[in-house]
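User: Need the bound-state model for pyridoxal-5'-phosphate:
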Amino acid sequence: MSSDARSAVLEVDLAAIVANWQTLRLRHPSGPVAGVVKADGYGLGARQVAAALYAAGCRHFFVAHLDEALAVRDAVPGAMLAVLSGLVPGTEDAYIAHDVTPVLGSLDEIAWWQFGREAILHVDTGMSRLGLDTRELAVLAQDHARLEGLAIRYLMSHLVAAEVPDDPANQLQHQRFASARAMLPAAPGSLANSSGIFLGADFASDLARAGAALYGINPTPGQPNPMRGVVRLSIRVLAVRDVPVGAGVGYNATWTAARPSRIATAALGYADGFHRSLSGRGSACFDGTPIPLVGRVSMDLTTFDVTDHPAVQPGCWLEVIGPHLSPDDVAEAAGTNGYEVLTSLGRRFQRVYRTA
Ligand SMILES: *Cc1c(COP(=O)(O)O)cnc(C)c1O
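Assistant: Bound-state model below.
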């Protein structure tokens, strides 16, 4: 008997993340490519990812919230570390104490940040979430004094549909960004996210902000993925049983055996971020062969029909994300996107970081 007590192992290939960053840099020669490590590095470990990118020479990082910045600050000494979600009043001292750069997205935030220090200015060109809106931009354009003493490190905006190259929103946002820049004091620009880097030279800027593509999500959906896969999630088969014709499997018996079947139960469920919407739709891989998921995904367990795969035995490992099943593949079966698949990954896995 094996004494290996692990039931699920998440391997993160930091070397592949660095290789993806290098690929993106070649695609964006107009300026550096920042590493976006919000949401704990898209679920893969912000500190580990940031440290690996930093060791490779990356000097620009973005997170969503101040807490996330404080959690990675010492892993990226001296690098720009910016918080995308805007400045919350009362947190200015923490930004200064930890050398974190705020992304200012309203006239109020600009007024609160009266420290004459560096900040990124965010203009809304179509997302309608954060960033200076048209009215605020007009006020600033008339009154540059409101920006007095502020060192605008970058003027940034965010694309709403960069992964759809012929979406007219891209050109519109490009124009709005250019006119916003013309209205404000000269500053470097930052526009493209991962997919934006692949929109071509018009969308190149002084700083790209890449998240998804670093983590192996295809920035060019419908085209071959130019990025390397970085995640492998392996789950252990806990039990295999024979079930007769008519036997139900899992909650509410949404699958019943139409033939004498072998059912493998594996250690993974929706509590691990394996979406319940994969019930009856997902799959796993054994030795490179796809194995259908049957019945409901439950909290801790998932069932697979291994009738045609006699080699699957208790103790075997199944791949649920990896070389044969990308996060995008899992997302398609689950009715979501690769971002949600990665950021949902649970906390119960044994995590292994590979650096070569
Ligand atoms: C998350 C985010 C990014 C990174 O986007 P990807 O599509 O993951 O590359 C860039 N900019 C902003 C403002 C973001 O919120």
